[in-house]
Design a protein that fits this description.
- By secondary structure, the chain is mainly alpha-helical.
- The chain is built from 4 helices and 4 strands, in the order ααββββαα.
- Strands 1-2 form a two-stranded antiparallel sheet. A two-stranded antiparallel sheet has the order 3-4.
- β3 and β4 form a beta hairpin.
- α1 packs parallel to α4.
- The longest helix has 16 residues.
- The protein is globular, with a radius of gyration of 14 Å.
- The N and C termini lie far apart (about 30 Å).
């Protein structure tokens, strides 16, 4: 599960706020959360050849950032924080900001803008 006091409603509120700040679709962002990380901080997938932590896929947070490669590995490198241990309100917020920035920076979302407010200045 998520850290103490971190509820689905709190995570959804953070996603709404951060998506709006980036001029992104709130409904689509919430759909991804509900399909990926709403039920558990760490993935529940036990099968497959993906990197595992404690017998489960090493994907974490609202958007299930995968630490074997891809965005999870990039998140850990850029923030210096282990996703396996980033299960706090601050960490969840940073993960949401990071993931939404990555989406906002992709081609095809012409009005969306990354904010990089997850970076420590």
């Amino acid at each position: 599960g998520y850290g103490e006091g971190i509820t689905k409603d709190i995570i959804e509120d953070i996603i709404r706020t951060e998506a709006k700040l980036r001029n992104m679709g709130v409904d689509a962002s919430l759909k991804i959360f509900n399909a990926e990380g709403a039920s558990s901080y760490q993935s529940r997938v036990r099968k497959g050849s993906q990197k595992k932590e404690g017998g489960r896929e090493a994907s974490y947070g609202p958007f299930q950032l995968y630490t074997g490669k891809g965005l999870g590995k990039e998140y850990e490198k850029e923030t210096g924080v282990s996703l396996a241990e980033d299960n706090t309100l601050e960490g969840i917020t940073r993960q949401i900001q990071f993931a939404l920035d990555k989406v906002a920076a992709t081609e095809g979302l012409t009005d969306a803008k990354p904010l990089y407010n997850w970076r420590k200045e």
